[in-house]
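hi! just following up on the protien thing from before. the input was this:
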Amino acid sequence: MELETKIVENYLTKKKYNYGILSSVAFLLTSLILSHLYWRHDLGFRELLLASPVRVHDNSEYWRLFSSAMIHADLSHFLSNSLFLSIMGYFVASSYGWIAFPIVTFLMGGITNFIVINSSIQDIGILGASGMVYWLWGFWLILYFCIERQVSINRRFMKIFAVSLMVLVPTSYDPNTSYYAHGIGLLLGVLTGFTHFLFNKNYFRSFERREIIIPEIDDYPEDDFDDNPPLYYQ
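and the predicted 3d structure came back as:
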């Protein structure tokens, strides 16, 4: 009889890096400082940080793609993004390192803004970290699905669907919110995470630890006892 095994530990069982909180706090403080400079009309930074099609393309000011991802319209806008930005930033940095967060996260914020601006038919200003927040969610969820193999595929799908429904799907419509940027950030997160997994699949799998499942005595078929009764030694 062939013994079965089950996975009891994997790459996500324990955090790999200890600077998750530091990375998250530093990123939020940087965003808050830049947002404060944007709010202060008298300092002259307001027009240097905001991104729009005319400012970016016509004036070749491409840094705005990245600076606009770090600023917010007001304090309530900052606080609405800071919760999940800090939580997901912590998890991503703790599990996948500082390159994933904040480096790649910051770059993806700029790429998201670039796609949104190039898709816009109006000269509108865009700002906020929502694209990065949704990138972090997409990155984390797809890697969870690929790594957490001790959970069945159906249960993984259900968990991801439930989280997406509760957290990622808006409950109300706001005309000033770029839901397109949310979708682009999420899609880029999924693509980036899946690519990361494909290139490092063997590395992630190396953290899996399996245990042998010992069947109970009642699990043996009755026919086996008739032909080959169990032997007991004294």
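The longest strand covers residues 4-9.
The CA atoms of residues 147 and 201 lie 9 Å apart.
cheers
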